């Protein structure tokens, strides 16, 4: 049984409520139908603005009710407020909206988890040879600071445990240990020291125990790879798709108090179904 099979079985046992702010988008409509037919979740549309949602946003942002009402005119923010108010378990969006708008809505209404300074994202990568991994951050943070890398690694560890059963985290670099120097190496090293995760470590050493020994570091056998920049993460997951035939499920946002999925605007119905199930498994 693959990790996706296991996730589908898990969410069927406790199907959650998923709010889709892009309710009428054709791919979303088809995915909603399949999710319902397969008993994976209860899709819910965005509610009209009401006093409860206004109060939720007032409490979250410390703003006046008149401003909260105006902000809730936007379906993305209203959907995020529904999650914050307990009317939905997760939000799935992004088929039409750009990533920055999905993040903005989640940040305004749901807020970041304690200890997290910035949101990030991950892909669940499923390889033809049976390997299953978390790649982060591949869609959000362009040039993370040491503090942001720390948050990405911590959030990715939580995601890894929830989806894979355990999280063996490696903070990747072009340097292993003290073999190289530079600004990005320093940021990765600081994040590794703050989290206790392996790093800085090159990808081969993170994945191959024999190479790790040759390079003088402890074997990690990593299943959660944290990349030093958005360039590296985004290129890596696309190479894995095209050269290794990996399935990339996501991107799912992480670091918020409650799960949010940010779909690619090129997403397919199959992608939406899988990403929704993965997001529900994080609840």
Automatic annotation (TrEMBL):
Transmembrane segments: none annotated. InterPro entries: P_Ac_Bu_trans, P_AcTrfase_dom1, P_AcTrfase_dom2, Phos_Acetyltrans/Butyryltrans, PTA_PTB. It holds the Pfam family PTA_PTB. Keywords: Acyltransferase, Transferase. It catalyses: acetyl-CoA + phosphate = acetyl phosphate + CoA. Residues 56-279 form the Phosphate acetyl/butaryl transferase domain. One of its GO terms (molecular function) is phosphate acetyltransferase activity. Belongs to the phosphate acetyltransferase and butyryltransferase family. This is Phosphate acetyltransferase. It comes from Roseovarius pacificus.
């Amino acid at each position: 049984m693959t990790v996706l099979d296991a996730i589908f079985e898990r969410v069927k046992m406790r199907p959650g409520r998923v709010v889709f702010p892009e309710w009428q988008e054709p791919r979303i409509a088809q995915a909603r139908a399949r999710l319902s037919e397969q008993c994976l979740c209860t899709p819910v549309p965005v509610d009209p603005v009401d006093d409860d949602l206004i109060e939720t946003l007032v409490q979250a942002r410390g703003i006046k009710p008149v401003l909260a009402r105006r902000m809730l005119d936007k379906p993305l923010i209203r959907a995020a407020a529904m999650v914050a108010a307990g009317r939905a378990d997760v939000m799935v969006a992004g088929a039409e909206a750009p990533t920055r708008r999905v993040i903005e809505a989640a940040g305004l209404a749901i807020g970041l988890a304690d200890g997290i300074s910035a949101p990030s994202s991950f892909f669940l990568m499923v390889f033809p040879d049976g390997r299953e991994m978390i790649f982060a951050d591949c869609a959000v943070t362009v040039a993370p600071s040491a503090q942001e890398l720390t948050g990405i690694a911590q959030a990715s560890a939580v995601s890894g445990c929830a989806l894979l059963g355990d999280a063996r985290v490696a903070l990747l670099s072009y340097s292993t240990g003290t073999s190289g120097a530079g600004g990005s190496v320093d940021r990765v090293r600081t994040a590794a020291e703050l989290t206790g995760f392996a790093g800085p470590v090159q990808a081969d050493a993170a994945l191959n125990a024999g190479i790790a020994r040759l390079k003088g570091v402890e074997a990690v056998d990593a299943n959660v790879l944290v990349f030093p920049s958005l360039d590296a993460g985004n290129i890596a997951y696309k190479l894995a798709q095209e050269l290794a035939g990996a399935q990339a499920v996501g991107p799912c946002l992480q670091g918020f108090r409650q799960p949010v999925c940010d779909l690619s605007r090129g997403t397919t119905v199959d992608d939406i179904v899988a990403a929704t199930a993965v997001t529900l498994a994080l609840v």
